Amino acid sequence: MVIDQPARPREPFSTVPFAPDPDFVDRPEIVAWVRDKCAGPGARAALVGLGGV
Predict the structure, then answer these.
(1) Cα 43 to Cα 35: distance, rounded to the nearest angstrom
(2) In sequence order, what are the residues at sequence separation of 6 or more whose Cβ sits closer than 8 angstroms to the Cβ of residue 34?
(3) d(CA 52, CA 21)
(4) How far apart are CA 36 and CA 53, in angstroms?
(5) Considering only CA atoms, which of 8, 7, 10 is closest in space to residue 43?
(6) Which residue among 4, 37, 38, 47 has its CA within the 20 to 30 Å range from the CA of 28?
């Protein structure tokens, strides 16, 4: 049996307990690309870089 989607959406494993940054620059295209790459079973991604820079 192949399951395409989980029976219920997964809850976040962890959250960042900080207030939203008013200077945050959203990158919806990049977020969509990462979400697409992580959609498959067993998919993983590592985001690296200087946070907040």
Answers:
(1) 10
(2) 45, 47
(3) 9
(4) 25
(5) 10
(6) 4
CB 33 within 8 Å of CB 45: no
Altogether, the residues listed in the chain come to a count of: 53
pTM score above 0.70: no
The predicted-structure confidence for 3-53, as pLDDT tens digits, reads as follows 666 677 777 777 777 888 888 888 999 989 999 988 888 888 888 887 765
Q: Which two tokens stand for residue 18?
A: 């900080």
Q: Note whether 1 and 8 are within 8 A (CB).
A: no
| Phi, psi angle pair for 5, to nearest 5° | -135, 150
The three-class DSSP label of residue 17 is: coil
